[in-house]
Design brief:
Radius of gyration of chain B: 30 Å
Shape of chain A: rod-shaped
Number of strands of chain B: 0
Helix content of chain A: 55-70%
Helix content of chain B: over 70%
Structural class of chain B: mainly alpha
Distance between the termini of chain A: 112 Å
Order of helices and strands of chain B: HHHH
Oligomer: heterodimer
Distance between the termini of chain B: 111 Å
Strand content of chain A: 5-15%
Largest sheet of chain A: 5 strands, mixed
Order of helices and strands of chain A: HHHHHHHHHEEHEHEE
Number of strands of chain A: 5
Strand order of the largest sheet of chain A: 1-2-5-3-4
Mean pLDDT of chain A: 84
Mean pLDDT of chain B: 87
Low-confidence stretches of chain B: 8-20
Chain lengths: 366, 132
């Protein structure tokens, strides 16, 4: 029994070793330090292997095998470095994930801003295009009215004036081409566009800037009529039709009002003084209105007039003016069946009586 | 006697367990080493890879000399060095990806700032045109 106790003591002493193991001491200090804390959280499998290797080193050292202890400690050191690298990798990946989320948020914001800016730019561009078209149309109208009022005016024009006329003609030709292309896209036959194409060719070929502008104006109106013909094959105006009508009318130099009854186009200069007859100089204005009616072929168009004079007498004059304008529009090519003449409704006259005429496109309500 | 046997088991069991811990073969380690060497970013782990190569060579020589225990210890070191090389390489890839992400973040912020500035200019222009 004594022998057995002695042997147990000897084995226990041998097992416990001579003291603190040297090979693993440094590594155990590192393992316990804050340096290894992230690795404990992020690479627990490797840390377990480190501890296992250090245990092996301690056992080898206690057994007196310093070489084996050093080998196990080396393996433990390599594994500890691997655990630290793994912890750093996980940390980098976590940060990268956060950055990717931030990038997604920032880019979404940037895209929203870019889209908003694009929307504003489109509105501004359209506004500028309408303003330019309106200016050119106004130039053509002025020229036409001058020609109408003074048919025998001088035939020579200054260089600056000629350049203005050519620019206006080019703008009108461009608009005519766009309307023709739209009509073709909707299925218009070549024959339907023949009048516009002929006027377009005449405008391009003419060396006289005034004649070129007149032909361009004709091409523009003919192309709008052709577009209206092909649009008429549709069941009704499309969702953007009232906006398109408003833009086209503004482009022609008319004022546009969005009413509950429909889109209203107001024209001035159609009547002179207290006359109930259409002014001689208003021919081109009426032609433009007729083209507008033809290009927007759906539903009735109310021809309304108002005069400065109030009461029954004023209503009678307004009625006569509306009828005169209706006849003039029909003579310019508008469909009589779609038109009706009436004084401007009392509810829409406002407090101050004004002399004005208005076309209300009933089917083109926003 | 029972006490002696218990003492021996107490001392020898961990040693036996450690001795029986699975160590990959030299061929398996060579294949893993080759895989790490072919990974993108392995340049940063060149020291660990060299260590693994040396340990692997030592293990093969020890095995040839019949030193099985020494060979197993050398294989364990080689395996640890390969693990380190693999983690260092992975960390390097993560570091590069992080640097790239930081750069993209800066670019995204620049784009957002430019977009906001352009939008504000457009709004000002629209308001100015509406006013006048």
């Amino acid at each position: 029994m004594i022998r057995a106790s002695w042997l147990f003591t000897v084995l226990l002493v041998a097992g416990c070793g001579p003291g603190t193991p040297r090979a693993s001491a440094t590594l155990r200090t590192r393992l316990a330090s804050s340096e290894a804390t992230p690795a404990r959280d992020r690479a627990p499998d490797l840390i377990a292997r480190v501890e296992h290797a250090l245990d092996d080193a301690d056992r080898a050292e206690r057994a007196g095998d310093d070489l084996a202890a050093a080998d196990h400690a080396t393996a433990g050191r390599l594994l500890l470095e691997a655990a630290l690298a793994e912890a750093a990798r996980v940390e980098d990946e976590t940060e990268r994930t956060h950055i990717e989320q931030e990038i997604a948020t920032v880019l979404a914001r940037a895209r929203r801003d870019e889209q908003a800016r694009e929307g504003i730019s489109q509105v501004l561009s359209r506004g500028a295009a309408i303003a330019a078209a309106r200016a050119e149309a106004q130039r053509a109208l002025t020229q036409a009215e001058e020609d109408e009022a003074r048919p025998r005016r001088r035939t020579r024009v200054s260089l600056a004036e000629a350049a203005d006329l050519r620019r206006a003609a080019a703008a009108l030709r461009a608009r005519a081409r766009l309307s023709m292309a739209a009509a073709r896209a909707l299925g218009a036959e070549t024959e339907a566009l023949a009048a516009a194409a002929t006027a377009l060719s005449e405008s391009e070929a003419s060396h006289d800037p005034r004649a070129s502008l007149r032909a361009a104006d004709t091409a523009h109106h003919e192309s709008m009529r052709a577009l209206g013909q092909i649009r008429a094959s549709a069941d009704g105006p499309g969702p953007d039709a009232s906006a398109e009508l408003a833009e086209a009318a503004r482009g022609e130099g008319f004022e546009v009002l969005a009413l509950a009854e429909g889109t209203a186009v107001e024209a001035d200069g159609v009547f002179n003084g207290a006359s109930s007859s259409v002014a001689r100089s208003a021919g081109h204005r009426i032609e433009r209105l007729a083209s507008l009616i033809a290009a927007h072929p759906h539903g009735p168009v109310q021809v309304q007039a108002q005069v400065a004079q109030q009461g029954r007498a004023g209503d009678q004059i307004a009625q006569r003016r509306a009828q005169a304008l209706q006849r003039a529009l029909v003579a310019a090519g508008a469909s009589d069946e779609r038109l009706s003449a009436q004084p401007l409704p009392v509810a829409l006259r406002g407090d101050t009586p004004l002399a004005r005429v208005r076309l209300v496109f009933v089917a083109y309500a926003r | 006697m029972k006490l002696v046997i218990a003492s021996l088991l107490l001392l020898l069991t961990p040693a036996l367990t450690a001795a029986q811990a699975p160590v990959p073969s030299a061929d398996a380690l060579r294949e893993r080493l080759s895989r790490v060497e072919n990974q993108r970013g392995h340049e940063v782990a060149e020291d660990a890879l060299a260590h693994a190569r040396r340990a692997l060579g030592g293990a093969i020589r020890a095995a040839a000399a019949g030193q099985t225990v020494e060979s197993r210890r050398a294989l364990a070191i080689a395996e640890s060095a390969i693990v380190l090389a693999d983690r260092l390489t992975a960390r390097e890839r993560a570091r590069r990806a992080l640097a790239e992400a930081r750069e993209r973040k800066r670019a995204a912020h620049r784009r957002a700032a430019a977009a906001r500035e352009a939008l504000e200019r457009s709004v000002e222009r629209r308001d100015a045109e509406a006013d006048g």
